[in-house]
Every structure is written in structure tokens, then in C-alpha cells.
Specification:
Low-confidence stretches: none
Number of strands: 11
Distance between the termini: 57 Å
Helix content: 40-55%
Strand order of the largest sheet: 4-3-2-1-5-6-7
Length: about 375
Amino acid sequence: MHKVAILGSTGSIGTLTLEVLSHLGQDYKVVALSTHRNVKLLQKQIEEYSPEVVCITDEPSARSLHIRGAKLLTGREGLVEIAKGEADIVVNALVGAEGIYPTLSALQGKKRVCIANKETLVSFGEIVMNTARKYGGEIVPIDSEHSAIHQCMWMGRDEVVEIILTASGGPFRVSGIKKYITPEETLAHPVWKMGKKVTVDSATLMNKGLEVIEAVRLFSVPPESISVLIHPQSIIHSLVRFRDGAILAQLSLPDMRLPIQYALTYPKRTPSLVKPLDLAKVHLLEFEPPDKEKFPCLSLAYKAVSIAGTMPAVLSASDEVCVRSFLKRKITLPDIPEIIQKVMNKHRAIENPVLQEIEEADKWARRETSELVRLLNL
């Protein structure tokens, strides 16, 4: 039996993971859950899945939870304790750079980390991959694009010459990002149902930029060998071109339950909850290059990973603050890439940084971004 801990169990990936685990049955047992402050949903999950340990990272919210039969932890320390615990599979569905600490703890314990926490790989990717190699931990991506690449790479990583990440293009694929666009319009993604942060990033194409950086780390390829292709139908989730010119792709209906199950059961495959793709009913598959003038966040991500060092952490941290500010109507959607670019231009990247230097760069970027947001609101 596999014992599974889900960090961020009340978010979109977390709730879908629980649905998949229910489908997989008795071979998988939920032993730990966590939330930031969605205590009401966590309580329901406790009653249904009977975890042995739960964590609430927002400590004031923890005071409102009354539980029986489970150990209650709080804060960052609680997440790390869960990662160190009895689970052999840790699903990291957290949002933000805080996800680095339980990720490293799980990898040091030779566990499998099913990772959907973008910021961990973007900001701390080299440290994460080095830790996995040193201790024998395993990383299996949950993002549909990286899951697709992971599956295609079975044919031989050494023969790969190009990775092609597909993107739906988001709700503003044609118009681009404009000042008049509201948070409500931005959160209305035409294909995927995701958390607010990822959905805003999808609208600006920052999400795809972050995925480029993730792919560099996960698959040990240079950024110039990764390209992005707009594919509105989201049927092809990514492609890999090999040395002989052949291209392999992974196709399925856009449903996150499939890459989640793949990450949990790899290398085995079992029947899933996802409706099989009927190619006879797919009348059109469209592709086009991304418009980097309309969506400058993509170019910023390529710039950050090319500079490397602490620059990806600065990009990620600044984007987090910008997205939060946009959702609070403090800035407009086009302000996001403008602010991030200003923060990146001001930062002097540190090469081969240690964990503490990345953390300091992250904090610096948040302060600088917050100040620029403040100045826009004077």
C-alpha cells in the first residue's frame, strides 16, 4: 500500500488528487493533508479520508478547527514534519516559494514528490534536482505539459533536440492583455479550471514562461531547446522532437486527473476517471506561435532562465506579488510585466546561489514589487 500526503489538499490540484485516490482504491491511503486557511473544506476531507496528520499553515485559522483522531500541526514546520513522516508519496500542490521546504525534506527521505508547485522548481530548481540525485528521491511532475514530456522522454532523453510546450493561449489569445480587463474576465479561462494564481498567469502567458524554466530544471536541457506553441484546443499537451526528426506527443482531453494519476502510479498505468479521447470527434487541431509583443511575460521568463542564478526566483516572487495586487484591483493586467521587468532590471543575479541567497533574493523582489505597486496607487 502506498501512503500519500497531500500538501495543499483544499486547492484545485489537491481536491482532484483526492478524487483520483478514491478511484484508485485500497492500494493508496491518505495519511496527511494540509491547507492554508480553508478550514471548512479541510474538516470535510478529514471526515472522509481519516488522515493521521493535518496541517494548517495559517496558525490563527488552526484555532477554529476541532478534530478527533488526527494530529494537528501548524505553519511551515508542520509541512516539513508531514514531508518527513510515513508517507512514501508526497503531493506538493502548494502555491508559492514556501513549497521548497517540504519538497527538500521529502526528497531527503527518498520519497516520491508529485510536484505541482511551480515556484519551487522555478526559484530553487537546481537545488531541488541536486537534492533528488544526492538522496535518491524521485520527482514526477503533475503539470499536464511536463507530464506529457516525462512520458515522451521514455524513448531516450539523450536523443532529444527540442521540447515543445503547448499553451491554450488563455482568454486573451487574440486581443492580448489590456488595461480595461477585469479580474473576473481574467479568471474565466476558456479550457482549464485552475486556481486563481495559475489562471492569471495563464492569461499573461507567465504560466508558460514558468513552465519553460521548470522544463529546463526537470529535463536538464538548455532554454534555447525549448519552444512554446499556442494550441487552443489543449488536446496535445506537449511534444518532444528527437535527433532523427521524429516528434512524439501526448494527447488527451484537458483533464488534470490524468497527469495526477500518472504521477501517483508511475511507471504503472491503470484505468482512469478521464473520458478517452475520440480522435474521430476532434475535427481541428490549431497551432500558432505565441505573440511575445502582446504577452511580454514569456520573454521575461526566457531572460530569467538564461541569466539563471537568483534571477528566476526574482521573476517568480515579483509575479506572485503582482498577481495578488491585480486580483485586489491595485494594478492592471499590463502592469504585471512592466513591474516585473523593472524589478529584474534592478537585480544583480548571484551565480550558483545557495538556499539562503535565493530566499534573500525572493524577499528582496517582493519588497521591490510591493513598493512599485504602492507608487502606482499614489
